[in-house]
């Protein structure tokens, strides 16, 4: 009948259609996403450090927990990587040089913080330090991931220990507390500057995009 004829015609027409492209979506994960995640982690660590620093400085007591306490940097504190570099000079570095400096600095700062974790006098403070160290370790790995995704090699050589062999310990409790104070102060500055670094970098590197790939469908 008419219905069977129409059905036969449609089948013949479909069989003779030209090969159509099949549309597949693949998400390319690249440097853009890695940079965004690293930026987000620096901002999280900034927030986390504000609480940790306040708790730790209260643990150290006066004058370290006083808002206007701003001592000169002692020679002993030079072992802590300093972030006090001229901003124009810092921005004039290549992306590779800034990333390498961040990677080395956080690797060393992590060693110092782990030493603090073992010396903290309260269980709550040790817990907070341990959690922060885990987050900072994540930042070190994240920076390494960014460098890898951009094709940059990691800085040669392992990060140094908190103090080279033979380095004398602080001669008194006040100087030991001063070391801890400068460690937190420099870490705050590093995180503030790193957040700006990764914010600029993510504007230079486009985020991951969904690409459309056409594949011929054969019969």
UniProtKB/TrEMBL annotation:
Family: Belongs to the IL-6 superfamily.
Record-given protein name: Cardiotrophin-like cytokine factor 1
Assembly notes: Forms a heteromeric complex with cardiotrophin-like cytokine CRLF1/CLF-1; the CRLF1-CLCF1 complex is a ligand for the ciliary neurotrophic factor receptor/CNTFR. The CRLF1-CLCF1 heterodimer binds SORL1 (via N-terminal ectodomain); within this complex, the interaction is mediated predominantly by the CRLF1 moiety. The tripartite signaling complex formed by CRLF1, CLCF1 and CNTFR also binds SORL1.
Alphabetized GO MF terms: cytokine activity
Organism: Herpetotheres cachinnans (Laughing falcon)
Subcellular location: Secreted
Gene Ontology biological-process entries: cell surface receptor signaling pathway via JAK-STAT; positive regulation of B cell proliferation
Signal sequence range: 1-22
Pfam families: PRF (PF06875)
Record's function text: In complex with CRLF1, forms a heterodimeric neurotropic cytokine that plays a crucial role during neuronal development. Also stimulates B-cells. Binds to and activates the ILST/gp130 receptor.
């Amino acid at each position: 009948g008419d219905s069977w004829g129409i059905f036969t015609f449609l089948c013949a027409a479909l069989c003779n259609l030209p090969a159509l492209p099949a549309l597949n979506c693949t998400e390319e994960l690249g440097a853009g996403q890695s940079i965004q995640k690293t930026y987000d982690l620096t901002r999280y660590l900034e927030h986390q450090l504000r609480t940790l620093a306040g708790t730790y400085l209260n643990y150290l007591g006066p004058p370290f927990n006083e808002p206007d306490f701003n001592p000169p940097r002692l020679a002993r504190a030079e072992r802590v990587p300093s972030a006090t570099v001229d901003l124009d000079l810092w921005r004039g570095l290549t992306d590779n040089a800034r990333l390498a400096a961040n990677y080395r600095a956080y690797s060393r700062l992590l060693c110092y913080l782990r030493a603090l974790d073992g010396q903290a006098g309260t269980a709550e403070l040790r817990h907070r330090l341990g959690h922060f160290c885990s987050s900072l370790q994540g930042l070190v790995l994240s920076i390494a991931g960014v460098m890898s995704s951009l094709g940059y090699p990691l800085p040669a050589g392992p990060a140094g220990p908190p103090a080279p062999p033979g380095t004398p310990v602080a001669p008194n409790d006040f100087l030991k507390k001063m070391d801890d104070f400068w460690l937190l102060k420099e870490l705050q500055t590093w995180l503030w500057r790193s957040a700006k670094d990764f914010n600029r970098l993510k504007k230079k590197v486009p985020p991951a995009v969904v690409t459309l790939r056409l594949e011929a469908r054969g019969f």
